[in-house]
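Example record used in the benchmark description.
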Amino acid sequence: MNYEYMILHSNWWGKWSVNITALGIFLHIFELPDLPWLKMTAVYAATFLLAVSLYQYLVQFINSIKVGRAQ
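Model output (structure tokens):
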């Protein structure tokens, strides 16, 4: 049986979500009393970006499987 391996690359949404997650962790470690809303905003934004990234990654993964089976 022949197998072809396709490397799925990270997308823009995932890269931004990692950076915003790091910002959220930083804000949870170092409290900023002037910006109390920024912690949860970073968490919600990272969650949204991760969901979009996961969706795009799964679509790309499913398409690569379909192309692999067609060949």
